[in-house]
Design goal:
Blueprint lengths: L17 H6 L9 E5 L30 H17 L4 E7 L8 H14 L5 E8 L6 H9 L2 E6 L4 H7 L9 H13 L3 E7 L6 H9 L5 E5 L14 H13 L7 E2 H10 L16 E4 L5 E2 L30 H5 L9 H4 L4 H4 L21 H20 L17 H5 L14 H11 L2
Parallel strand pairs: 1-2, 1-8, 2-3, 3-4, 4-5, 5-6, 6-7
Antiparallel strand pairs: 8-9
Helix pairs in contact: 2-3, 3-4, 8-13
The structure holds iron/sulfur cluster.
Length: about 450
């Protein structure tokens, strides 16, 4: 007889008691961020991409271009959700694959459709996440006219960027990405830069390469990994500490680094955070190119189908998904954390890190982050720096000296440079929006 292996139940899908949570009076917050996968394919073959290189290969069975009927249904469902929940603001992110493969006319037509459907009482912002390679003058003009804010993936200098972000033939994409950044910045349509951390790159050099483009914001992203598929290399925490010191010690605030702003905000007792840190409720929902309503697509790094739900915008509204265990788990705050994180002294600031990084076969997402040690190093370091500055004491982290008191002025008064902005300048809602706009 052949033994049948029964997989143990996985948290939250089979183990989170949503009925009991509802009976307790808890209610989910409505979605506020709608990520539309307008084109399923990409013209690059980045080696760390979670869509094409990791365990979930569901993109193969979906249409490359989101069909017109799905775009129309998506616009209608967003408007319906916004109206039903009387949302004062919402964010739509055009995503992929590479969304510009859809063609700029399709994209701006889709944006117009959404804007005309959504109630005028809602402040609707639209972002687009791109690798930058398909940006040209016509695209910049059309996107700027459609009030679409564009974020570009850039991992640092040419060597670091082109090590990972290449065309299928092996050529790098850095030069085209930089050209796109310059064009978008010139049109006032650049939202920010997204950099996936590459440990082989000097952290300060990487930061300064990104800063040289004078972006409004920079997101540093941990490469997606889980306990089952651990990250390559180690030292992410120390790498980020060096960038933090360079950013924090600048005499003026040169750029918004969302991870660091969230970190300081949380250390100072504030709420909020972003997808990588803190306990804020996650309020983003994905629409795949076939209309499937899904959870954050970073979950595709965990196991096949991890992001899936039974619903589709062609037949269902977004409210149907609000009580899905996966979405509920992302809004439960500390109640979604496993025992190690609950006992952790930095739990409120860290929040267990990015949800997908907690995944471990076979039990699911109730574990510390696979980047736990790195998060702890960064959080403790930032806390020491902050404590030393606020109390006038020496901080005891080897290799770092206390910042001169004069440098506190930008932090205290927010009198940064032209790209200035301190933690308090960005509300938790804005930080969460920015993270959602980040994508991959
Ligand atoms: S991931 Fe690690 S550092 Fe973060 S809350 Fe959990 S135990 Fe603490």
């Amino acid at each position: 007889m052949t033994a049948v292996r029964i997989a143990p139940p996985r948290w939250p899908d089979q183990l989170l008691d949503v009925d009991a949570i509802a009976a307790s009076g808890w209610r989910p917050a409505p979605f506020r961020e709608f990520v539309a996968k307008v084109h399923q394919r990409c013209n690059l073959s980045c080696d760390y991409c979670y869509v094409y290189t990791m365990v979930d290969q569901s993109w193969r069975g979906r249409p490359a271009l989101m069909p017109a009927e799905v775009r129309t249904a998506t616009a209608r469902r967003i408007a319906e959700h916004v109206g039903r929940h009387e949302l004062a603001d919402a964010l739509v992110v055009l995503h992929g694959g590479e969304p510009l493969l859809a063609g700029v006319d399709v994209l701006t037509g889709f944006v117009a459709e959404i804007r005309s459907a959504v109630p005028a009482s809602c402040r609707l912002r639209v972002g687009l996440q791109t690798n930058g390679t398909l940006i040209d003058d016509a695209a910049v003009t059309a996107l700027a006219a459609a009030r679409v804010t564009v974020s570009v993936s850039l991992d640092g200098g040419p060597a670091a960027h082109d090590r990972h972000r290449r065309y299928a033939g092996g050529a790098g994409s850095h030069a085209r990405a930089v050209r796109a950044i310059e064009m978008l910045a010139g049109a006032g349509a650049l939202g920010g830069l997204l950099a996936t951390i590459d440990l082989s790159q000097d952290p300060v050099e990487c930061y300064e390469q990104l800063l040289a483009h004078r972006p409004p914001a920079i997101d540093f992203l941990f490469p997606h990994a889980t306990w089952t598929n651990p990250p390559a290399g180690s030292g992410y925490g120390r790498w980020l500490c060096r960038v933090f010191d360079r950013w924090y010690d600048a005499p003026v605030r040169e750029v918004r680094v969302r991870l660091f702003q969230s970190l300081l905000n949380l250390l100072l007792g504030g709420e909020g955070g972003n997808e990588q840190i803190g306990l804020s409720p996650m309020r983003a929902v994905i629409v795949e190119s076939d209309g499937a309503i899904e959870q954050t697509d970073a979950l595709k790094a965990a196991y096949p189908g991890a992001a899936a739900t039974p619903w589709n915008v062609l037949t269902d509204g977004f409210d149907a998904a609000l009580w899905h265990p996966g979405f509920v788990a992302r809004q439960l705050g500390v109640d979604a954390l496993g025992p190690d994180c609950r006992a952790c002294p930095v739990q409120r600031v860290c929040g267990g890190g990015h949800y997908v990084h907690r995944y471990r076969e076979p039990d699911g997402f109730r574990n510390p982050s696979v980047y736990c040690g790195d998060l702890r190093i960064l959080i403790d370091h930032a806390a020491r720096r902050l404590r030393a500055d606020l109390t006038g004491t020496e901080h005891d982290d080897p290799g770092h000296s206390r910042r001169p008191p004069a440098d506190l002025r930008p932090l205290q008064r927010g009198d940064g440079g032209s790209h200035g902005g301190r933690p308090a300048d960005q509300s938790p809602a804005e930080q969460a929006d920015a993270a959602a706009a980040g994508g991959r």
